[in-house]
Amino acid sequence: MSAVMITRKVTRKWEKLPGKNTFCCDGRVMMARQKGVFYLTLFLIIGTCSLFFAFECPYLAVHLSPAIPVFAVLLFVFVMAMLLRTSFSDPGVLPRALPEEANFIEMEIEAANGNVLAGQRPPPRIKNVQINNQIVKLKYCYTCKIFRPPRASHCSICDNCVDRFDHHCPWVGNCVGKRNYRYFYLFTLSLSLLTIYIFAFDIVHVVLRSVDSGFVNTIKETPGTYPFIRVLVCFFTLWSVVGLTGFHTYLISLNQTTNEDIKGSWSGKNRVQNPYSHKNIIENCCEVLCGPTYPSVLDRRGVMLEDSTSPNPSDASTHKSSNPVSQTTVRQHFL
Amino acid sequence: MAETHSLQDLRQAAVASKVFVQRDYTSGTICKFQTKFPAELESRIDKQQFEETIQTLNNLYADAEKLGGRSYLEGCLACLTAYTIFLCMETHYEKVLKKIAKYIQEQNEKIYAPLGLLLTDPIERGLRVVEITIFEDRSIGSR
């Protein structure tokens, strides 16, 4: 072991990743660049719930049941957990091809295309694959230099290819893809329930107070116009969030992504059918929501191997340096 | 040990070329690699051996991604705990990835390194390819 202690800042792989993501907590958190709308989402959820807990809950706990605020707290915690999980995790980004892999693919493409006459446009780079008796076209991504796997798509906002790309959601400040789709769905579902819950109990609260002291007095008593602003926010949120939840429930039951739905990939014309669907709603739901949790292949927290300037390059240390990386690579795939 | 010497030697040997075994998407989006034997390896390794390695890898990945009682139970339990259970528990997929890393290291030590080849764990290439590095066949003989 070297006697000289060198305190050098360790460079982790996330610092060198291409693409337009921002990373926090030393690579543990991964988000898109524009986070403004995400902060708005946080503000709306936390603001509305705080007002509910501060003004409605004491009255409801006393006059109806203490279980009401308790359940609201649990629901709120679940909503926040799902939101943060969706926003902070890797959606399923596919790393770009290293130069050797890119060259290998280029050579394969040239071999497949044969001689292109000068002045003629080279044919588009597409591979045809048969999946479940359906021909699926794999497109070549010029940015990432790979043939995109089926269902993957390149997000121009984050400048990454994402596996099972659904859509880029500004409200959560991240792409929604294979790894975080279920958290996104549970977020919209639990947010719908929370919105309905708060909306319903706001109305119950106003009704109960009106029964006690008359409607006009209620408006005078309740602090400012908070409940009415909240009812308004809840009303508009309700329709959009519940609508979105309904839409994604429909997509999940058919095992489709938003991207495929928008492009009309499996719309049924030319007798194309979704080859990924199990043709059974329950199986489709189970696969999307309860399937295995895929690891992140980005290895954001892996240490970049420095291949120069170390003062004691013994063979033992260089050999060991690659093994801990491969050990740590597996554990980093969680978030 | 002869095997470690072999692997050590590879680190100093010159890389002749690399072969990339692509994904096989005919069964859908599950992780599966093509078992087609690359022409560049014909002079180096037995076709049967290569196919066996890739097939074992495919079986391991299939086990990781299998939809069944176990994965559903894991998914439901995780959902009930708002996915905080993964802070203390390893997912099934992670356990299989560790198995795969060990298998690849074992294969490299026992079979591929003595032949001047090196398998790279697909997870380091985004589960897109199995990269096989072919080293120049000069000083790596049987030791």
TrEMBL record, chain A:
Residues spanning the membrane: 37-55, 67-84, 183-208, 228-247
InterPro entries from the UniProt entry: Palmitoyltrfase_DHHC, PFA4/ZDH16/20/ERF2-like
Domain Palmitoyltransferase DHHC span(s) in chain numbering: 137-263
The reaction(s) this protein catalyses: L-cysteinyl-[protein] + hexadecanoyl-CoA = S-hexadecanoyl-L-cysteinyl-[protein] + CoA
EC number in record: 2.3.1.225
Region (Disordered): 305-335
An example Gene Ontology molecular-function term: protein-cysteine S-palmitoyltransferase activity
GO cellular component, one term: Golgi membrane
Record has Endoplasmic reticulum as a keyword: yes
Coiled-coil stretches: none
Tree of life domain: Eukaryota
Cellular localization per UniProt: Endoplasmic reticulum membrane; Golgi apparatus membrane
Enzyme class of the recorded protein, top EC level: transferase
Main location: endoplasmic reticulum
Membrane topology: Multi-pass membrane protein
Domain comment as written in the entry: The DHHC domain is required for palmitoyltransferase activity.
PANTHER family: PALMITOYLTRANSFERASE ZDHHC9, ZINC FINGER DHHC DOMAIN CONTAINING PROTEIN
Name used for this protein in its record: Palmitoyltransferase
TrEMBL record, chain B:
Cytoplasm in keyword set: no
Broad class of where this protein is predominantly found: Golgi
Subcellular location: Golgi apparatus membrane
Any coiled-coil regions, as ranges: none
InterPro entries the UniProt entry points to: Golgin_A_7/ERF4 (IPR019383), Ras_palmitoyltransferase (IPR051371)
Transferase recorded as keyword: no
Keywords (A to Z) from UniProt: Golgi apparatus, Lipoprotein, Membrane, Palmitate
Family: Belongs to the ERF4 family.
Function: May be involved in protein transport from Golgi to cell surface. The ZDHHC9-GOLGA7 complex is a palmitoyltransferase specific for HRAS and NRAS.
PANTHER family tied to this protein: GOLGI AUTOANTIGEN, GOLGIN SUBFAMILY A, 7, GOLGIN SUBFAMILY A MEMBER 7
Name recorded for this polypeptide: Golgin subfamily A member 7
Native organism taxonomy: Eukaryota, Metazoa, Chordata, Craniata, Vertebrata
